[in-house]
Amino acid sequence: MEKPSENMLRRSRKGLVALFVKEIRQAAGFVANLRNRWSKFIRRKPARVTLQYEMIHSS
Predict the structure, then answer these.
(1) Is the per-residue pLDDT at 47 higher than 70?
(2) Which of the four pLDDT bands, split at 50, 70 and 90, describes residue 59?
(3) Which of 3, 6, 30, 53 counts the most CB atoms within 10 A of its CB?
(4) Distance (Å, whole) CA 31 – CA 27
């Protein structure tokens, strides 16, 4: 009974790591996308307005 449980644990850990990596990649892509949008947004509008906007929408 030792072997299967150990194997399952290893498999689940591998799955968790894969899921974690996927989540991080998605989050990184999302952040990059947001940063891209923000730089475009900031170029168009005054800095003061974007700062207020960021403060309102960060919470």
Answers:
(1) no
(2) low
(3) 53
(4) 6
The one-letter amino acid code at 3 reads: K
What does the chain come to in residues? Answer: 59
**Whole-angstrom Cα distance, residue 20 to residue 13?**
10
Predicted model pTM? 0.43
Both tokens of 23, joined, read: 């989540």
DSSP per residue, 14-54: HHHHHHHHHHHHHHHHHHHHHHHHHHHHHHHS-HHHHHHHH
Domain definitions of the chain by residue range: 2-58
Per-residue tokens: 42: 């900031």
Taking residues 22-37, report their average pLDDT. Answer: 91
Question: What integer pLDDT is reported at residue 41 of this predicted model?
Answer: 74
